[in-house]
Queue: 4 jobs
Job 1
Amino acid sequence: FFHIHSKATDTGSYGCSLWISKTRPVGKLNGNTVRLCEGDTCTLVAEPRLLLVRIACKITNFLVVVMHAPHQVTMDEAVKYWNDVEQLIVPYTSKGENVLMLMDANAKSPQWCDFSFGQYGYTEQSGTTLLMQKCLSVCKVWCPATFRQYVKGDEPDGTFFWSIDSDPVRIDYVGIAGG
């Protein structure tokens, strides 16, 4: 593996990390296996809560967004964060570029269907749900694991937040956009 990361802060954000396998193939070209190497990456943004990395190799070109959104207890920070992410991502998705978003969104799934979210695995929304939904909708990013037809098995897949006082809720997502 090789590791791309952003720095932590003194206020408790540990930074964002992207680990990429050097041995797993991403595809084939003319019968030859293609693997990613560090030279196939370019870090565009490295902030404590956001990492944007361009991956461009012989067979693919896409943007990876690794994010760790603020919790709803700091709504002013959350509003600014989601607006900033939207402004950074829209220029890529508006051109139809392939984007992979790996999100610790700290936001529950919305209870309604739209382009970005299905109703599979939803719970009561949190204060940050609308911020996340607006950002992803404007960016034309959708989260496949929130649509039943894209999930294998009987239980909603994904990462869930567990609390002693409540049922598990989804706050982490994989989003995709582009061709």
Job 2
Amino acid sequence: IQMALPIELGKKRFYRQEVAKAEIAKTELEINKLIWETHIKVHPYYTSVVVLGDLLVLAQDRKDFYEKLYNIAKARFEAGDASKLDFNRSYLEVLASDNYVNEVEAKLSQARINLNQLLGLSPKQQIVLDVKPEDLNPTGVLSSKAEMQTYLDQALNKRIEIGILEKDYGIKRAQLKQSQ
């Protein structure tokens, strides 16, 4: 029976392991960097799609409201209870709200196209989530991490120290003025 063991002089093996660990850590950092870069690119487009979608709902509600007011103004005008000016104003509001709905729809369509282009999808393809938007909560808070809490504590301590120094400076300055 023969047994072979690699013989390495000094700490050569230890240093090779440290280099390998460093390369792994570097690769993990590069992966995290790519994830954050992707997040930074996608987030504004996704946010604009969501916000414009909500804005479109509000604009359509506004348009429905002005259409009801127009119908009321029309009935009052035909009954002789309101002037033609009020009737025309309500009609102008309906047209303005309809124009705003069309504007928001165009912006939403452009935002969807931009998001799809960034994600590599066809422009007309819809993104469907399997979960409700309410369920898409962050899994963790950045300040809950121990390292971040340490940095926050240090920053708070520095701010307190600066506040104390500024107060002491103000007191000394006031004392100098009084002595003069």
Job 3
Amino acid sequence: SLNNIGNTCLLLGKLDAAQEVLARAIRLGTPGSNQLGYAYNRLADVCLAQDRPAEAVSAYRQAAAIRETHPGEKSRDLIDSLMGLGNSLQQTHDYHEAEAAFHRALRICEDRSAGQPDKEAYVALHMLVACCRKRENPAAAEVHVRRMLDIARTLPEPVPDLDDTTLNLLGDVLLEAEKY
């Protein structure tokens, strides 16, 4: 399919070819289909790789809108689109909107995992910490890092050095908040 060709071009670093193929997939795609959501998401990835975050924001928004209805609100695909959206919004310095995207992704992660420790939730929290630090809001960053630490310590399959890495991040945030 065109999506597979576009993805292969992206993975090979042939960004112009990937953009062309994915744009064609979007033009020919069935409105609202999962495949169209995938094409928009991968096109956004191409835009980010080409240092065009404002265009990536638009494509990630399209992907997320499609993925909310197909294959469903709790889908891993929607989380992926929201995380990409948040990342590209950070690159455009729209930290407020980035934070909103990461919060939404976090809520979906938590709903999917039924409150159990979840690596995707950890990543969403990590991105929230970055937003809070950019916005010079160390109090909110501290809350998120402490949640990350809880997750790191209770994951069913421990990740090497995750606890130490999270503690180091907490130390950095506490220094920024002058709570040392």
Job 4
Amino acid sequence: LCMVTAFITMIIIDRSRADSLIKAHLHTSFNVDRKEISGEMEILIPPDTALTLYVKHLVIEQLQKSPLDENGPNRAEMNGQRIDFGIENYQRSVRIAFKKTLKDSFYNIISKDAIVLTSGWHPIPDIPIQFSLSAQIPVNFSAISETDRITESKPGDPVRFSFSRPLTSLNFAAAPWVR
């Protein structure tokens, strides 16, 4: 009986943790000739949860929040380096459209030979969140990330990844690998 009670308690605690996690879907596409990333991040922030997104090296094109607070949009503060979402007693959804033009470095490369992204290429949360990722890659490329679930896609369709553990940033690589 004690083992059954402990098991049920673990399931309930695990479920409540999952409900309190911030969830984000990141979609990206690439302009290889301009070495540019275009992205959109959709985030669900549970009640009583604060979030800071570091966006220092990104150009934020659009920031949408819902629901809107009567005194302004959800008290999000953006200072060019980060976006702060304070604690609210209701669930919020946020959509951020961004771009980044890369200079090839040890951390990030976009070329006709490969796309490798390991640092500062998307909004970075201050706490681990539950990510999913989709990326529109060149037709002859295949992609990998540190995921445990990859959804197969047809050439020309976005590649899709889901992550079972919360993370603060994602790594991504794509190239014309042979299967």
